[in-house]
Amino acid sequence: MPILFKIILLILLIVFLFGFFFTEKYLQIQYRFFSWHYKLSGIDAKFKTKSPTTVKITSLIGIIFVLLIYFSALEDIEKKKLNTSTAEGQKTEVTETINLEDPDMKTVYDFLKKCETYYLATVENDQPRVRPFGTIDLFEDKLYIQTGKVKNVSKQMAKNPKVEICAFDGSSWIRIEATVVNDDRIEAKQHMLDNYPSLRQMYKADDNNTQVLYLKDATATFYSFGKEPKVVKF
Ligand SMILES: Cc1cc2nc3c(=O)[nH]c(=O)nc-3n(C[C@H](O)[C@H](O)[C@H](O)COP(=O)(O)O)c2cc1C
Predict the structure, then answer these.
(1) Nearest to residue 110, comparing CAs of 98, 124, 128?
(2) Residue 94: what pLDDT?
(3) Ligand 1 midpoint to CA 131 (Å)
(4) Quick check: 25 pLDDT over 80?
(5) Which atom, in ligand 1's list, is nearest to the CA of 136?
(6) Ligand 1 centroid vs 133 CA: distance in angstroms?
(7) How far is residue 136 from each of residues 53, 65, 116, 142, 159, measured CA to CA in Å?
(8) Which pLDDT value is given to residue 83?
């Protein structure tokens, strides 16, 4: 929520709370503030001044309104977070805090999900190649990634299946070195697509392009500043 918006809401809330709890004072200030203007316009200021009950009711409505605006704006932000889509339209979920002290494969999965985007490095001849990826799936106790066979990344992995993955969640980061294994089974692809429904716009389990690969001989290391790295092999 922009800070200016918050400040405006806070000022309005203070004014309404003041009007509600210190109605007499509020009326005095309002009278003093506007009396010069009423004088100029030839209006009787006393006539214009609202009754305390009107001020109390208006202030209460104001307080409710400000709070409603504030909470609906917060809710909108939460919804946006939950529906963050990657460039390929993959829906992601926000995961709660993950315990990195004693990690296992599920911790790696949760961490990559939480990061939403990770970076996948492959090798092309003697040249490293890296790009953003988002798909990660737990299927039959293995960690899967997804791509399209037409992509260079797929061709590179076919030639040299050694990959490295890196992701950062804002305080900790992970590095996974692994060998990828292509899994051409429809059920493995379908499981991935079921977990990323928006991928179904581009991919189908039997389209000869969709590819899922699982990580084998993986070593994942979790790092945080000032902490010993934690290693998990799977
Ligand atoms: C946030 C983000 C997530 C992505 N996730 C994937 C993914 O999971 N699988 C995929 O094949 N491409 C994904 N892409 C697109 C690839 O990064 C892109 O196609 C890249 O060019 C592939 O590498 P290549 O050019 O070496 O083949 C993603 C892109 C972004 C920006």
Answers:
(1) 98
(2) 47
(3) 6
(4) yes
(5) 8
(6) 5
(7) 60, 42, 9, 10, 22
(8) 45
Sequence letter at residue 223: Y
For range 187-200, the mean pLDDT: 95
- Name every protein residue with a CB atom under 6 angstroms from any ligand 1 atom: 86-88, 117, 129, 131-135, 146-148, 151-153
Q: What separation in Å is there between the alpha carbon of 38 and the centre of ligand 1? A: 66
Q: Could you tell me what percent of the chain has a pLDDT over 90?
A: 67
- Compute the mean pLDDT over every residue in the chain, rounded to the nearest whole number: 88
Q: What is the pLDDT of residues 112-121, one digit of tens each?
A: 999 999 999 9
